[in-house]
């Protein structure tokens, strides 16, 4: 099954799961339920659970693994969810890999932590099944939305001083950043799909040139 078909299937099933969950708008649209928040740290665990349940209902998926540790000749990868089918000898064969990124990890790390990690796994001999990433980026936040990890070797150090811009439009900001990084790193997106639940509904993050034609605002000097 190609990435378009499986992304469509996951999108439809995830939409059903989100509707059933009836979560508050701030659950995936703010940092209220992320690590270090004032309320709870349930965002990632609930998100992965919903994603796993959606993948389990996709045609062709016979088994679902969560927090799977993959190893192949020194090439390691740990996606949040894998949908498997049974091979001819009863072995589990990946149908789709998936990761869920909470609001506090839907940032500059996605090209490095997710996209490049998938490419490394495939280029290292791992099975080239489609890869779907679910991120949490609202058009405008429904609660606190700080810009973290901007010191030392933090993923967002290059964006230090842009907190206000990020907070005003998380989806628009990070989509442009990702598009730029994908082009710079020459990452092939042929088998990759990106879904977004930041506004409480399932949408797609389009990293095509048209979607990111506008330039990012210049970085403020510190």
| Rg | 17 Å
- Quaternary status: single chain
Terminal CA distance: 48 Å
- The strand order across the widest sheet is 1-4-5-6-7-8
Task: Tally the helices.
Answer: 6
E-strand count: 8
Quickly count the domains. Answer: 1
Gross morphology is: globular
Question: Percentage of helical residues?
Answer: 25-40%
How would you spell out the order of helices and strands? HHHEEEEEHEHHEE
Structural class: alpha/beta
Describe the structure.
This protein is of the alpha/beta class. It has one domain (3-209). Helix content is 33%, strand content 17%. The chain contains six helices and eight strands; from the N terminus they run αααβββββαβααββ. The strands form two sheets. Strands 1-4-5-6-7-8 form a six-stranded mixed β-sheet, with helices on both faces. The chain starts with a helix and ends in an 18-residue tail after the last strand.
Pick out its properties.
about 15% strand; 6 helices; alpha/beta; disordered C terminus; two-stranded antiparallel sheet; 6-stranded mixed β-sheet; about 220 residues
């Amino acid at each position: 099954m190609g990435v378009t078909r499986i992304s469509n299937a996951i999108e439809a099933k995830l939409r059903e799961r989100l509707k059933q969950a009836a979560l508050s708008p701030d659950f995936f649209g703010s940092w209220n339920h992320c690590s270090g928040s004032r309320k709870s740290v349930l965002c990632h665990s609930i998100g992965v659970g919903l994603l796993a349940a959606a993948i389990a209902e996709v045609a062709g998926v016979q088994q679902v693994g969560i927090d799977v540790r993959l190893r192949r000749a020194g090439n390691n990868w740990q996606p949040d969810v894998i949908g498997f089918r049974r091979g001819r000898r009863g072995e589990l064969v990946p149908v789709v890999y998936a990761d869920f990124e909470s609001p506090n990890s839907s940032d500059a790390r996605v090209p490095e932590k997710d996209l490049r990690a998938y490419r490394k796994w495939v280029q290292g001999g791992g099975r080239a099944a489609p890869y779907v990433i679910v991120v949490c980026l609202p058009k405008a936040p429904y609660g606190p939305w700080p810009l973290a990890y901007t010191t030392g070797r933090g993923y967002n150090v290059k964006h230090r001083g842009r907190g206000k811009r990020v907070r005003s439009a998380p989806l628009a900001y990070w989509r442009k950043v990702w598009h730029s990084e994908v082009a710079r790193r020459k990452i092939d997106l042929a088998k990759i799909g990106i879904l977004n639940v930041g506004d409480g509904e399932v949408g797609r993050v389009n990293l095509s040139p048209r979607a990111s034609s506008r330039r990012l605002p210049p970085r403020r000097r510190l």
